[in-house]
Amino acid sequence: MTVVEEGPAYSKDNVEQAILTYLAQKGTVRTAQIATAAGLSTKTVREYLNRMLEQGLVEGVGSKFSPQRRYRLADTQGPVDVSVGATFSKGA
């Protein structure tokens, strides 16, 4: 599986947007599920998730140190636009 990007080049924003879209579609998911869908390592996905946690875009469910910790979109004051942007899809 690969990250399909919108626009001329791969960027951190493309992956973050794809993670947000995936969370919007799936609800609450584990790091490993995102990593499998994206074709990235769990370590890389955790780095993205940690940044997104700090930004208040996602929230963790369960113990911070548990391998079973799950993530979901944060309950924000305003809407988070996940309708446009990169998504994870099966590809070459």
How would you sum up this structure, described in words?
There is one protein chain. By secondary structure, this protein is of the alpha+beta class. The protein has one domain (2-77, 85-89): Winged helix-like DNA-binding domain superfamily/Winged helix DNA-binding domain (Arc Repressor Mutant, subunit A, Orthogonal Bundle), CATH 1.10.10. The chain is 39% helix and 17% strand. The protein is built from three helices and five strands; from the N terminus they run βαβααβββ. It has helices spanning 12-26, 31-38, 42-54; strands spanning 2-4, 29-30, 58-61, 70-73, 87-89. The strands form two sheets. The chain has a three-stranded antiparallel β-sheet with strand order 2-4-3. Strands 1-5 form a two-stranded antiparallel sheet. Strand 3 (58-61) and strand 4 (70-73) form a beta hairpin. Helix 2 (31-38) packs across helix 3. The longest helix has 15 residues, at 12-26. The protein is globular. It starts with a strand and ends with a strand.
How is the topology of this model organized?
Layout: E1 2-4, H1 12-26, E2 29-30, H2 31-38, H3 42-54, E3 58-61, E4 70-73, E5 87-89
Antiparallel strand pairs: 1-5, 2-4, 3-4
